[in-house]
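By way of example, we now present a protein record of this kind:
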Amino acid sequence: MPKGHERRIHGHRHAGVRIVQEGPTLVHALDAHLTHPEPFGVEDLLPYRLARPPDCQRQAIHRRTIMRKARSQTKRPKLLAELERRYQAVSSRL
């Protein structure tokens, strides 16, 4: 269901990495109309007001941001400096 939805929105054959990385929460949102045919009201959404994405999803999004910086020629030196600084901080504690 979500893959078809993504394809219809973007007009591409492949839905992309968004479904893989944001899938744990995205699938429920895209399939909500199957079990709830009328528009959502405030009382329907109240139980989800404090919901947080699962750890696996947050980690995947964080990895995506790092890899995007690594592909950028302008952002790569700052990323490498930051990773080197983090590595030195961890190795000095050991």
Notes: The two ends are 48 Å apart (CA to CA).
